[in-house]
C-alpha cells in the first residue's frame, strides 16, 4: 500500500484529499514537491503565477538579477548541476527562469503544479485533522499538511502616495512587472526607491531612457558586484569544487561558502584593515558584507570603518561633490550592512550622465502624483514611465495575506498582529499541520533561497516521515516553545546592529507593521536547534 493510500487519499465528492498542499513554485516549493513525491506522499503545488520560478517569475523588470553568486544560488544535487552551465556569476532573471524550466523538465514537476491558482483561504478542520484550502477561482482541496513556500517577497508594497490614479503615463511595481516587458527606450523614466530593485532598474534605465529621475529617500549602500562571465570550460573547472562549497554553506552565517573573519576590525592597524577591505571588495558580491570582520555587524566603531571604506570607494566614482554627498554621505544614514546590502555594477557611474538626475526626497518630498508625473515640494517632474521600486511587506506578508483560520478563533493575520510568533520559524501555535519555509524567525533574508529551501526543507520532510512512521497525524507548536523562540530571536537581535535601521529586516518599511527582527541571524545555530528538536521527538511541538 502506498503512503498516499495509507493516509486515505481519495477523491471524495468534489473535494480532492491530499497528504500535502504546497503553496508557491519557487526554490522551496519545488524542493518540497520533489522530495515529498519521492517519499510517496500525495502532494500538489498551487502557484499564483503562470510559470515556475517564484520571485523570478514576478520580478522580471529590466536588470533584475540575483545577488547571491552561483553555485550557491542553485540546488545542490549533482543530478541537477552536472548538466547545467551558467553564463554569469550573478545570473539575470531570464537565465534563472531557464534554470527553473530545466529543473522542472528534468524532475517532471509541472504535472503536479496548478498554475494561475492563488490560494486565498484555509481553515483547519480539527475533527479530520486536515486543512480545507480554497483558491481564488473557487477550487477547494483538503490536505493533511499545508506547506507554505511563499518566499519573502510575495506581497509587494505600494506606498500611499496621493494621485497615482491620475498619472497619464505607465506605472509598474518592480515586483509585479508585466511579463511582456516595458519599453523604456527614449522615455522619461522615474524610479521611486533605491533598494536592490531600484539599483538594478536604474542601471538599465540609465542606458535607455531619454531622461531618468531617481527619487531617493535613504541612500543605498550598494557594494561592487564584480560580475563575471562564465564559459563551459570555466564552469567545468568550478564544478570540481561544488561538493565542498555545498558542504560549507551549512556552516556559515549566511549560507555562503565563506564566513566572517574571526577578528575584530579594531584589533589591527588601519593599513592592514584597509588591505583586507580591498581584498574583500575585489572578491565582490557579499564578501564585503558577510565575509568581513566578525564585529562589523555588532560593534559601531568596527562598523564605521567598513562604512568609511565603502564611502570613499563610492565617492571616487561620482564627479559632482554635492551629488557624491547625497549618494554616499560623509556620515552613514544607518550602520553599514544592517539594511540588506545591494549589489551594483554601474549604478554610481550612471549619475555622471547628463540624462540621469537625483531627487533627494529628504530635501524635496513627494507631494503627489499628477497626470504628468511626480510633484515634489519644489517641482513637477514630468514622466512617461514611473517605476515603483518600493519593496515588499517582506517575509510575513505572503503568509498573512491568505485568510488562514486555525483552531483558536483567530486568523494568522490576527494572531500575528503584534508580531510574528513561531517555533523555529517553521510553525505557529493554533495552526496545526501548517509549516512555512523561509518564514519569519527563520534565517530567510539572511540566507539565500536555495540553501534555505534544502536545509530547512529537509527538516519538514523528515518531520512528515517521522509522523507517518509513528502513525501521528497532527503537529502543533506549543505556546511556551513559541515564547522561548521569540525571546531567543530578540536577544540575538539585540546583540547586533540590525535594529538600528528602518529596514524590511525589522518590518520597519511598512507603516504600522510591528517592529521585530524577521530573520534568524546565524544559519548554523538555527540548524542546530532544529535538529535538536527533531532528535528529541520534535521538542517544542505536540504530536498526536
Ligand atoms: P527595499 O529594499 O525595501 O527598498 C525599497 C525602497 O523604496 C527603499 O529605497 C525605500 O526607501 C523606498 N521607499 C519605500 N517607500 C517609499 C516612499 N513612500 N517614498 C519614497 N521612497 C520609498 O525593496 P527592494 O525591492 O529594492 O528590495 C527588496 C529585497 O529584494 C532586497 O532586499 C533583496 O533581498 C531583494 P527607505 O530606504 O525606506 O527610505
Present the secondary structure layout.
Blueprint: H1 3-6, E1 11-12, E2 15-23, H2 27-38, E3 43-46, H3 55-58, H4 78-81, H5 93-107, E4 113-114, E5 119-125, E6 130-135, E7 140-148, E8 170-173, E9 188-192, H6 196-208, E10 211-216, E11 222-224, H7 232-240, H8 242-248, H9 270-283, H10 287-290, H11 300-315, H12 321-327, E12 342-344, H13 347-350, E13 356-360, E14 366-369, E15 373-376, E16 380-382, E17 385-388, H14 397-400, E18 403-405, H15 412-415, E19 434-436, H16 449-469, E20 475-477, H17 479-494, H18 523-535, E21 541-543
Helix pairs in contact: 2-16, 16-18
Percent of residues in helices: 25-40%
Total number of helices: 18
Query: Measured on Cα atoms, how large is the radius of gyration?
Result: 24 Å
Q: Which small-molecule ligands are present, each listed once?
A: ligand NA7
Distance between the termini: 22 Å
Query: What are the low-pLDDT stretches, counting only 5+ consecutive residues below 50?
Result: 1-12
The number of strands is 21
Q: Structural class, please?
A: alpha/beta
Please state the overall shape, judged from the principal axes of the Cα atoms. globular
pLDDT averaged over residues:
96
Largest sheet: 9 strands, mixed
What percentage of amino acids are in beta strands?
15-25%
